[in-house]
Amino acid sequence: MAKTKKNDRDLIDTLRASGLRKKVAQTLASSSRSKPKGKAAKAVDESLQKLRGVTTIIERRAQEARRSEAGKKAARTRKRNAAKRSTAAKKGAKTRAKSR
Q1: Alpha-carbon distance 50 to 18, whole Å?
Q2: Kindly report the CA angle at 16 between 11 and 20, in degrees rounded to 5?
Q3: 55-82: b (≥16 Cβ within 10 Å) or e
Q4: What does the DSSP 8-state code read for residue 31?
Q5: What pTM was computed for the model?
Q6: 15, 25 contact by CB (below 8 A)
Q7: 4 pLDDT more than 90
Q8: What are phi and psi of 36, to 5 degrees?
């Protein structure tokens, strides 16, 4: 097993604490290691770009789980119609009570 530097270990610990799996954290931490400076920055940028892509997918799914505008309108219509029925029922009950 390869030894990790203290900087890499700190980064891995931080990534793990934020909820990433161990293998993903190790891969991200090692993406800048053992490469020339320019390629290391490119590797880190690519990793970050992939993470951003996944983040947007997760955010989009979370927004889809919310109730849509059409669903909200349907709920308002059902509530309004229920109120109409209730009012009509009360009026009918009052009329029947008078006639007895």
Answers
A1: 17
A2: 115
A3: eeeeeeeeeeeeeeeeeeeeeeeeeeee
A4: T
A5: 0.46
A6: yes
A7: no
A8: -60, 155
